[in-house]
Amino acid sequence: MSILVTGGAGYIGSHMVLALLEHHHEVVVLDNLSNGSAASLERVAALTGRDVAFIEGDVRDRELLDRLFHQHKIDDVLHFAGLKAVGESVEHPLRYFDYNVSGTVTLCRAMEAAGVRRLVFSSSATVYGDNDTVPYDEALPTGEPTNPYGRSKLMVEEVLRDLARADTRWSIALLRYFNPVGAHPSGLIGEDPLGIPNNLVPYITQVAVGRRDALSVFGNDYPTPDGTGVRDYIHVMDLVEGHLAAMKAIGRRPGVSVWNLGGGRGYSVLDMIQAFEKAAGRKIPYRIAPRRDGDLAQYWADASKAERELDWKATRDIEAMMADAWRWQVNNPGGYAS
Ligand code: NAD
Ligand code: UFG
């Protein structure tokens, strides 16, 4: 099949492109490189021995999308393009609604005009809001996300539900990611955050490689087994395999389907530090810092719906997540610019 991957030069998108090529799909990437790197796609091409058609451009550019759909016969769209920094979304909410919400609306209008009606959307566990019931399963009502980034994901979910209600020819997967981490085991592609990392694992690997002094652990007084925040970390290769399974499933499922993509268990910040130290054989200096605004104490996925309906399950453990994240970082201490 021929797949359009928006945001395919980013962290998850580049791993997705690799998996699609390995599964013999034709791939077209649309990315404006605001947070991605063309080098990631060169490495994907080197790893797979296959070419990727790369178009540098923006999902909000309707004319460009019309040209793209005219030039390439696309079967499915995997939509990763968007902004994802929670703190930045609080400062610049309009940018987030523009990129994430307007970007998706523009993409869907171009898809509709081109007669392409199969879409996989990168949603997030953030749409559950501050829900006391863990684990989170897909039957829980969505909650109140605590920031504009989260609200933009929830809005897109609602836009896509309305779209599928209005035209039953659409097949849409809303994939709610928990915490994607790790890298391809080659160490050639991985997560390359701009500036100071917001997320735990890239921060840990940058401390280990000497780019940061010490990790701040945001709070050790949460009602969790060791007092630090608990999350459901999922290896990025498991995550992209979940997309392959979802793509296959929506081929025979009209309407909107929702699946959690998580490992189904929680690890604390201290568990993650320990797993990293074991995998990398080096100590991570850390200090306890105040809680970070907007953080929840603990949540993890009930991942059984995806297992039942997609025949997919995350299989890589936290040692593999950390070993692969470390291999990427140590081989590329400055990211793609190294
Ligand atoms: P990323 O920033 O590495 O990748 C996003 C890519 O989209 C980048 O290459 C960027 O250049 C591109 N992009 C952004 N806006 C664009 C636009 N308007 N037009 C074209 N390209 C554009 O992020 P990621 O971690 O790979 O995340 C991919 C998707 O998954 C995002 O939608 C994100 O919100 C979602 N998600 C990520 C996480 C996570 O923790 N990484 C968790 C839940 C959901
Ligand atoms: N943490 C630290 N120190 C750091 C960074 C994080 O202690 O330097 C802690 C956080 O407090 C939290 C845990 O590590 O307890 C994980 O934090 P991340 O920032 O890595 O991830 P979040 O769970 O906050 O958020 C991530 C994505 C969001 C997405 C959400 C969905 O960044 O985009 O998962 O579950 F919406």
Structural summary, described in words:
This protein has 338 residues and is α/β, with parallel strands linked by helices. The chain has a domain at 2-183 and 232-264 and 300-315: NAD(P)-binding Rossmann-like Domain (Rossmann fold). Helix content is 41%, strand content 17%. It is built from 11 helices and 13 strands. It has helices at 11-22, 38-48, 62-71, 86-91, 93-114, 148-166, 200-208, 236-250, 269-280, 304-310, 318-331, and strands at residues 2-6, 26-31, 53-56, 76-79, 118-124, 171-177, 179-181, 215-218, 230-231, 233-235, 255-261, 267-268, 286-289. It has a 7-stranded parallel beta sheet, sandwiched between helices. The protein has a two-stranded parallel ribbon with strand order 7-10. Strand 1 (2-6), helix 1 and strand 2 form a beta-alpha-beta unit. Helix 1 (11-22) crosses helix 8 (236-250) and helix 7 packs parallel to helix 9. It is globular. The structure holds nicotinamide-adenine-dinucleotide and uridine-5'-diphosphate-4-deoxy-4-fluoro-alpha-D-galactose (UFG). Nicotinamide-adenine-dinucleotide binds at residues 6-7, 9-13, 30-36, 58-60, 80-84, 99, 103, 122, 124, 177, 179-180. Uridine-5'-diphosphate-4-deoxy-4-fluoro-alpha-D-galactose binds next to helix 7 and strand 8.
